[in-house]
Request: fold
Amino acid sequence: MNLGRKRFLVFLILLTGIFSMVNSGIAANRESVDKMMYNTDPQDTFPVPVGIKNQLFYLQRTTNTNTIIYSLNVNDKGELDESTPVKVFWIRYPEGGMRKELNFIQKAFAYGTISRKNRDGSFTIQLVAYKKKEFTLKKSLLDNTYKMYTLINNKESEIKRVYIQIDPGGTLFNPNVRYIEMKGKEAATNKPIMERFKP
Reply:
């Protein structure tokens, strides 16, 4: 084998090694990106409602980005309507972020609330679709404004967001819920808190 052919073979071996390293790097990067995308929960890509007056918390579901807003129901003077202290409505992001009222079925069977005034002036609030979880609407000791509280990880917390992971296979009135995620702030420390549970 002459010197020129040897050099050519060495060049091919080196070139093959370089391509192998490049392809390995691309594959590793692709795997890393795929892993990052896989680990990104769908709710982390959903829009976050901002600038909504008297908002208490909001609810989102896997099915689409339409968002249910739970807000304080006050009149023009800022006085609370004690007969219906929580107002519920849609923000329809796929329709340009328009606001829309709940229809009768949505209000009565899915996203509406039941309220009861307590002796201390607070209100016990339940969602009609999941009455096991109770919320308390009361004034904060920090700023004397109404906020919604519930237990998250057995700690009293101001609820800010509810997300429902729905899998295929259920029905309109009995969806296949994999988990409910609640996010908020601990009342005692103001630290972020989160809990997922199977209803």
User: Anything to note?
Assistant: The first strand starts at residue 55 and ends at 61. The chain has two domains: 1-40, 42-197. Residues 3-38 have pLDDT under 50 and may be disordered. Residues 3-39 form the longest helix (37 residues).
